[in-house]
Amino acid sequence: MSEQFSAAYDWARRHVAEGRIPTAVLGIATAAGTVALDAFGATGSRSARVEDHYRLFSVTKPLVGLTAARAIERGLLTPETPLTEALPEFGADRDDIVRLRHLASHTSGISEPAMDAPTPLRETLLTAGRDFAAGSVSRYSTIAYEGIAALVAHATGRDWDAELSAWAAPLGADGLTLDEASDPHPIVGAAEAGLDVAAFARHRNPGAGLLGRAQDLLAIGSALLRGGRADTGSGIVRPATLAMTLRPLTGDIPRLDPYPAERGQDWGFTWNLRTRAPGLIDRDTYGHGGWSGAEFWIHPTAGVAYAFLTNASPPDLDEDRLDNAVIGAL
Fold first, then answer.
1. Treating both helix axes as pointing N-terminal to C-terminal, what angle do 60-73 and 144-156 enclose, rounded to 10 degrees?
2. For the chain, counts of helices (H) and of strands (E)
């Protein structure tokens, strides 16, 4: 571990020691690669290691977003592409048009099911009701990513996870998977919080289903800090495409829980943009969090990215303190 970031690691270590979370893996990267990585705690008798897999939950979302963005820069999709291009039967009773940009910015209005609901995601997507007109309200949505997955598969001819692996693995993010054989740390308290993890995992959910290691996210973060240059052979998307994904899409429309206006963020193309967050030192940041405590954030001007993984049912953590400790070390 780099002593430069000792305050950030003290934050993680303290939360494990005080029993708020069972384990933690924290990694920090620059454009040159990983500069700090350490693990703390244990799940029962299983000690955490930096190479362990964790459930990423909604950190999956921006990785799927980058996959869709790659299809956009190849001319296979645009943010205006309607979902009906891939699924003509979608929205038969709707009088609006749900487009890729709505799916990617939590403004589609599709009624949200439970994450462990028994109905297959595609069937749920096609039969879900409408809670509001597309583009009129922002409310967090995971089922929308089944729509993004359908558009990616229709455009590229490959399932979303295969298309994602095709760009992530060459970066060194070859641990991203849907395979339960990767043996992720079990989520302590999941059943008590109302989540059947086995039922959830069977969905292979493109909005929340990936398993991964901190080093996978750090490899992606480093590439994004390099500008996401696909023309170098070691990037993800071209700089203009990355800039497109970081443009706010939600504007001043009403924002419903759990991301009301006072949280000070906007939605880009699947990225959470914390450009008005009152608790941050540096608001030039984009990234995403996950249900069991995962965090993945990139600070482009500061030149740093970090990944934090843990395995508690929604843990009571003040992640702004971690973010500020990382930035404060620079």
1. 30
2. 10, 10
Q: At what angle do helices 60-73 and 160-168 cross, to 10 degrees?
A: 80
Q: What tokens were used for 195? A: 């989540």
Report the candidate in 197, 179, 178 with the shortest Cα–Cα distance to residue 187.
197
Domains delineated in the chain: 3-328 (3.40.710.10)
Please tell me the least confidently modeled range out of 18-27, 55-64, 116-125, 310-319: 310-319
For 25-50, the DSSP string reads EEEEEETTEEEEEEEEEEETTEE--T
* Nearest in space to 40 (alpha carbons), one of 19, 59, 55, 58: 19
On the 0-12 / 13-18 / 19+ scale of CB atoms within 10 A, 222 is buried
Element at 24 (helix H, strand E): strand 23-30
CA distance 265 to 168: 27
Cβ partners under 8 Å of residue 241, min gap 6:
69, 70, 72, 73, 228, 230
pLDDT tens, residue by residue, 267-316? 999 999 999 999 999 999 999 999 999 999 999 999 999 999 999 998 88
Distance CA 126, CA 93 (A): 11
**Per-residue burial over 163-198, b = 16 or more CB atoms within 10 Å of its CB, e = otherwise:** bbbebbeebbbebbbbeeeeebbebbebeeeebebe
- Cα–Cα distance measured from residue 180 to residue 191, given in angstroms and rounded to the nearest whole number: 18
DSSP secondary structure string for all residues of 124-163? HHHH--BSS-TTS-B---STHHHHHHHHHHHHHSS-HHHH
The DSSP string of 2-18 is: -GGGHHHHHHHHHHHHT
Q: Which two tokens stand for residue 212?
A: 């991964």
- Closest of 329, 270, 274 to residue 304, by C-alpha: 329
What's the pTM value of the predicted model, to 2 decimals? Answer: 0.96
301 contacts 327 by C-beta, under 8 angstroms: no
Query: Locate tokens 């879900």: which residue?
Result: 128
